[in-house]
Amino acid sequence: MLQEHGKAYGVYHSYQGQYATAEDFEETYRGVYESEEDFVREQWEEQGITKQLEELGILDAYINWEAIARDWFIDSYYSVEIDNETYVFTRC
After folding, report:
1. pTM above the 0.85 mark?
2. Strand runs (DSSP E) across 1-92, as ranges?
3. In terms of residue numbers, what domain contains 24?
4. Secondary structure E strands in 15-56
């Protein structure tokens, strides 16, 4: 797994300890980002939400990414920050 996924699997294994499995890693790993806010922003862009809001006249500057990320990471996701990188996983 370390050869295939590198540092991301190492981070996951360090966080999960004896409960870490390759299957769970592959199901829950969402990527590495600069921050939780960057993860949320990318998800909204991929889903077209940001574009829809812009069409309604709601600019990115009006969106509180920190608050949205806090909500998402309360129950749907968790992150592990190492070396200024934020590894994002879904909660099982």
Report:
1. yes
2. 29-33, 77-82, 85-90
3. 2-90
4. 29-33
